[in-house]
Design a protein that fits this description.
The protein folds into 2 domains: 66 residues, no CATH class; 37 residues. 56% of the residues lie in helices and 11% in strands. By secondary structure, it is mainly alpha-helical. A hairpin with a 6-residue loop joins β1 and β2.
Length: 131
Amino acid sequence: MDKIDINNTFKRRSNTYRLVVMNDDTYDEVVAFRLSRKSVYIGFSISFILLVGLTIALISFTPLKYYIPGYGTKESRSTLQLLKIRTDSLEQAIHYKEQYLEGLKKVLSEGNPKQLDTLPLQLPESQQSFD
């Protein structure tokens, strides 16, 4: 297997080529460019970066951003936050009321409570008789 010669690769990158645009009828040169592989790569990279930058700028600084799904106006976002806060507080209130009703059902369903509210006091015998 042939080894890749690093020096040859670097030399090929800097070799110059000629790109000629000619008129088909008269065979006159309209434009001639001297290019290398490195300059073509740099040109394509810069044009790609500019194209991406312009697309991002066009979307972010114009009303086109409102056509992106999930992106809304400031008013709709603030309204959504307010509704979310209200929903959370209502869920918490419902949870507290359910706990209260469950406790109330427990108290009402038990006819004879197994456990009394008060505990009998155990007094020493010397204090039990007041006679």
